[in-house]
Amino acid sequence: MDTIYYLESCIVSNGIPQRIVLDKLPMTIGRSTDCDVVVNSASLSRIHAQIDYQDGKVVLKDLASTNGCFVNHQRIESNTDIQIQVGDIVHFAGIEYCTKVEQDTDDDEDHTRISMQTLPKHFAVKSKEFAELLEQQLVTTFQQIITSRNGDVYAYELLGRGKHPALGASPYELFKIAESLNKQIELSVLFRRQGFIQAELAGIDKPLFFNSHPEECHNPDKLLKELTELRKLHPSLTLFFEVHEAAVTDIGAMVEIRNGLSALNIGLAYDDFGAGQARLRELTEAPPDIIKFDISLVRGVGNSESPRYRLLASLNRLVQEMGIATLAEGVETEEDAAACKEIGIDYFQGYFYGRPAAIIAD
């Protein structure tokens, strides 16, 4: 009998394989149909990771993905091989797998076999630990700088992280657990409330961009009530509410949210613009203050002769002519930064300018 390694997931989804058998390596994993294993999750990069067999060991390599690979909740460096062993927890962005082993009794089969069948039973999600995280507010906040064209710090984006010892810090992992328990809005609210508290204690006087879960926009009354309470608690903060492009589907709801935010003196930003279907109609009927161009439009824009450059330049011109400021997300190289400035984008965010860092109170 041959020893077969495989990865198992607790996530129930048509787009996410629940068992990946590692019997023919190397194997690539990502959103692209060119990958050996296709995982239909927006959090994964097109070609996210590779698993190989080297010197008798199964090794994982992160292929410079946006949201990273994690082994036992520790992010691995891009393009670096790391051994994975039976019992290890592996994350591709927020998708969790457990490394397991079994004996293969079919000695004659030697071709690639990637099994995506439903498991006879699902792993129990970490509901007890997650309940503790919510009840004890075991989260913290990181900040990432947003710069203006002259290089000065214009604002910060608030980014939630977990602090429960039995759960990962990654918000992607935590939101996957939250969604399985229908607690995604509670987690989003907790991240937001803790972020405002820490920012105020740290004396941050720059604008603060804060995130929302797409589900929150389906109930504008509840969302605006919660934001009204937060505004009363933090009247001095300059705030921008970020809405993911995928949530901008109900124009009536977005108009209501837009008007409610204006009454609270909170700006509106459409996040990840261009990641999916760029909804131009919403720009006219529920116009934001800022559009954040998705990393998929920004990465590799450094070549001024490329179609990507021309597309971003056209979109930037269109948006600015509507009186909306623009921001490039995911700027990671000097070439992309220079191209975005040449195009005329107003603000910039990404590893080239600074990685997320913990907020330090005064």
TrEMBL record:
Q: Which residues form the EAL domain?
A: 122-362
Q: Which organism is it from?
A: Zhongshania aquimaris
What PANTHER family is this protein classified in? CYCLIC DI-GMP PHOSPHODIESTERASE PDEF, SIGNALING PROTEIN
Q: Which InterPro entries match?
A: Cyclic-di-GMP_PDE-like, EAL_dom, FHA_dom
Native organism taxonomy: Bacteria, Pseudomonadati, Pseudomonadota, Gammaproteobacteria, Cellvibrionales
Q: What protein does this entry describe?
A: EAL domain-containing protein
Where is the FHA domain positioned along the sequence?
27-76
